[in-house]
Amino acid sequence: MILIKKMTPARCVAWLVLITMLVVTLFPLLFVAKTSFVPAGELYTTSTQLLPDNPTLSNYKKIFGLLSTEESIAAGGSGANINITTSMINSVIFTGIIVIVQTFNCALAAYAFARIPFYGSKLLFGAFVASMMIPSVVTLIPNFVLMRDLGLLNSMLGMVAPFFLMHGFAVFFLRQFFISLPKDIEEAAQLDGANSFMIFFKIALPLSWAPLMTVATLTTINMWNEFLWPFLIATDDSMKTLPVALQSFKSQTPQGQPDWGGLMAATVVATIPTIIMLFFFGRRIVESVQFTGGK
Amino acid sequence: MPFMSRKMKNSLFGYLFIFPALIGFLLFYAWPAGRAVGISFTDWNLLSEPYYVGLDNYVDMLEDDQFWNGLKLSAYYVLLNIPLQVMLGLFLAVAMDRLTKSLFVKAAILLPYLLSNVLVALVWLWMLDPILGIVNSLVSFFGLTPQAYLGDPDQALVSVAAINIWRHMGLCAMLFLAGLQTIPKYLYESASLEGVTEFQMFRKITLPLLRPVMVFVLVTSVTGSFQIFDTIAVTTAGGPLDSTRVIVYYIVQNAFSFYKMGYASAMSVTLCMIMLAYTLLQMHIMRASESDLN
């Protein structure tokens, strides 16, 4: 655009908005990072400073379980515990299983809805899409009861169960894509005697890398951050995902005041994977998120 | 399989393809949704057998002040949350569209949305701590009175809304930015040749052409924030003095703290109806809101 190269008043306002928003967005995170290096005794005295007086790693040692309970209380901990390594691994497994299996299942179903005229396909597709409208709190109780009856509480299978088989949005989104693919190659393959499975794996799937990655990216964001379901299923510390572990670390405060140093260190550690992902896949993440509103 | 007709073969393959997703749909959406209705007609604490009580739960619900309070708080929360979030997101998107294509800026603006509600709640619990938090330090620095924020019944829900605005405005901005980029630049160019001011361009070109994205953002964010739970579970647990006991928090509490599965289900089915009615209404409006470009 030619008209905006000058420093017009509107342009000044726009810069002001953008810079303010960037500061508002990033400042709290930097402040949390600072707090994670502050020794417990100095939280009050350094509360308005941008840098700690005597930076320490004790908060990090504490959350990685490198200090004994006595040491950690001496270092200003609340005696609360978090096993951040275990919950990080749990989060990776939880998210990984769901993203891979759900994306694959949804691609299969989406392809059938787009290309195979089977009995009842319209009705079922409508039902799949409608499932997006059910608030999760409605299915929560029956699903919890089912997991309990199957003995799947505190198990990874129980945690991924409601998510990993299908997701209405993923089916809807991928079907739109498959419909937009030109039919010629698939029809030629069909004439050569290839069945639907062969066509799906050999032709359609290799062409769908981009939309599959979009779906996978969105599912990764949602599942990495999912709280309520894993919170209900994983009551045992060894099964907790990051959000669940952070919440229980926050709420077990035997000595009243939360262990701010430890909590902020845990917050920083839990933020790091997101920042790494953003660093490597920034463009894909931004574009995937934008895609959701594009239709 | 020469003995099968084309039709049968298609149906066989069709069902083979959708099989895993269909199981997921039946087992974790369709059946539990029906079962929730069934449970809502019972008195059930998970341990004993469910006891059929007919419509008692629904009758109790209508007489339960906490239920109405929860609905009211959720609606109030939506009103606090959405307009400001959408406005900030829109300003941000317009600013970014004008000034920069930097991926770093986009990534930074989107970052809060990529962090979990729990994480974001912890960040702000610390920032808003009445004694140690930086927000009160800044407030005193400017000569104002420090506040209790999440600890004050009059401010708690507003604080939760502020936290969620912080998390979601970047997402809003990204969605609007994608919408802005579909608007042909020549519209602005010819408008500027005719001496139209930037503000008029925003009102006469940008806003009308953004309507489809606007409707999408409104539908998803209204139903989403009406069901706010995570942030409240971490920051206030429904308090102080029930000032943040929104409807979903009250439902989860009834189910998993008080073990009143029937009552919780009755409320969740009601919530589902409300959300469904809202979505249908919105879809009706959405159909009437195709972009003026088409």
Q: Can you describe what's shown?
A:
Chain B: It holds the Pfam family BPD_transp_1. Chain B: Its main location: membrane. Chain B: It is found in: Cell membrane. Chain B: This is Sugar ABC transporter permease. The complex is a heterodimer of chains A (295) and B (294). Chain A has 295 residues and is an all-alpha fold. Chain A has 14 helices and no strands. Chain A has helices spanning 9-35, 58-63, 69-74, 84-115, 121-130, 136-149, 156-164, 168-180, 184-191, 196-207, 209-225, 228-233, 242-251, 260-292. The mean pLDDT of chain A is 87. By secondary structure, chain B is mostly helical. Helix content of chain B is 73%, strand content 1%. Chain B is built from 13 helices and 2 strands; from the N terminus they run αββαααααααααααα. In chain B, strands 1-2 form a two-stranded antiparallel ribbon. Chain B starts with 5 loop residues before the first helix and ends in a 7-residue tail after the last helix. The model of chain B has no long low-confidence stretch (mean pLDDT 89). The chains are: A mainly alpha (295), B mainly alpha (294). At the A-B interface, helix 1, helix 4, helix 5, helix 6 and helix 7 of A face helix 1, helix 3, helix 4, helix 5 and helix 6 of B.
Overall mean pLDDT of chain B stands at 89
Terminal Cα span of chain A: 26 Å
Main pleated sheet of chain A: none
CATH class division of the domain at 97-225 in chain A = Mainly Alpha
Q: In terms of quaternary structure, what is this?
A: heterodimer
Element order, helices and strands of chain A? Answer: HHHHHHHHHHHHHH
Low-pLDDT regions of chain B: none
Mean model confidence by pLDDT of chain A: 87
**CATH topology tier name of chain B:** MetI-like fold
